[in-house]
Specification:
four-stranded mixed sheet; binds hexanoyl-coenzyme A; Enoyl-CoA_hyd/isom_CS; 11 helices; lyase; six-stranded mixed sheet; alpha/beta; Lyase 2-enoyl-coa Hydratase, Chain  A, domain 2; 2-enoyl-CoA Hydratase, Chain A, domain 1
Length: 258
């Protein structure tokens, strides 16, 4: 891959967005690489959690690649938007939980990438924003939809219309990020969280993710019915037997992921 790095540390997959000279801006080639990588990770049962971070000092991702978009026709821009949406939907629905570790700019498509992850941990220096209106465009990788779902309609509209960058503490106050941590501890804290998740029953974690993702788009009675199906499904796993038996025997559970 030219624009991404991927490494595995125990059962955690770490993706680094790696175009630091362009502040990791998302061009079509990067999106296609991310698509292929996510397809591979989805079927890699050895990977139980994923972390996404930005390479270089300054940025998580500073947006879609403006130089590439500049001369696009309307049809090309539509296809580019659809490509990003498809990849970010794949990320959002990846079986494994995904943590975004955000150390610098997460603007435009970068904020949209972070929002497609399950959990966002920001360093104190991170900056967020949807500055697309300053370029004469709207967000196009799901930002107009995921932002209001995370922070509410009114705040989302302010961020989208005004276009200002907000700092990590403000992003935390608005519910855009889960935690704000010191710059030097960002990866350590992201890995510790991933390890904690990985120590639990992996199928149950994946089913929690599916229940939230699918259920949030349903009416509450359908969503709770779906939850009941998923809860029942857990009892077909070895991990449910092990987890409950370990509790009764007052020992730590040893999950097989089955
Ligand atoms: C292409 C980018 C870029 C981007 C930065 N660069 N962001 N290239 N696309 N989104 C490049 C710069 O051109 C520059 O290249 C290098 O990265 C370093 O950036 P500087 O601007 O010199 O750094 P700095 O002065 O520190 O400013 C950082 C910044 C600024 C505030 C993040 O770069 C910036 O405003 N970037 C654009 C942010 C943005 O508008 N994002 C939304 C894009 S639209 P050179 O070659 O000069 O060194 C979007 C739509 C998504 O994301 C939906 C699409 C369907």
């Amino acid at each position: 891959m030219e624009n991404l790095l991927y490494e595995k540390s125990d059962s955690i997959g770490i993706i680094t967005m790696n175009r630091p000279k362009a502040l990791n801006a998302l061009n079509a080639a990067t999106l296609r690489e991310l698509d292929s990588l996510l397809t591979a990770i989805a079927s890699d049962s050895a990977v139980k959690a994923v972390i996404i971070r930005g390479g270089g000092e300054k940025a998580f991702v500073a947006g879609a690649d403006i130089t590439e978009m500049q001369s696009m026709s309307a049809m090309e821009a539509r296809s580019f938007g659809k490509l990003g949406q498809m990849v970010f939907n794949k990320l959002e629905n990846l079986p494994q939980p995904v943590i975004a570790a955000i150390h610098g700019f997460a603007l435009g498509g970068g904020c949209e990438l972070a929002m497609a992850c399950d959990i966002r941990i920001a360093s104190e220096k991170a900056k967020f924003g949807q500055p697309e209106v300053m370029l004469g465009v709207t967000p196009g990788f799901g930002g107009t939809q995921r932002l209001p779902r995370l922070v509410g309609k009114g705040i989302a509209k302010e961020l989208l219309f005004v276009g200002d960058q907000i700092d990590a503490l403000e992003a935390y106050r608005l519910g855009l990020v889960n935690r704000v941590v010191p710059v030097a501890s960002l990866m350590e804290i992201a890995i510790a969280m991933a390890n904690k998740i990985v120590s639990h029953a992996p199928v149950a974690v994946q089913l929690c993710k599916a229940a939230v993702n699918e259920g949030m788009d349903m009416a509450l009675d359908s969503a709770t019915a779906y939850e009941a199906e998923i809860f029942g499904l857990c009892f077909a796993t070895i991990d449910q037997k092990e987890g409950m038996q370990a509790f009764v025997e007052k020992r730590k559970a040893n999950f097989a992921g089955k």
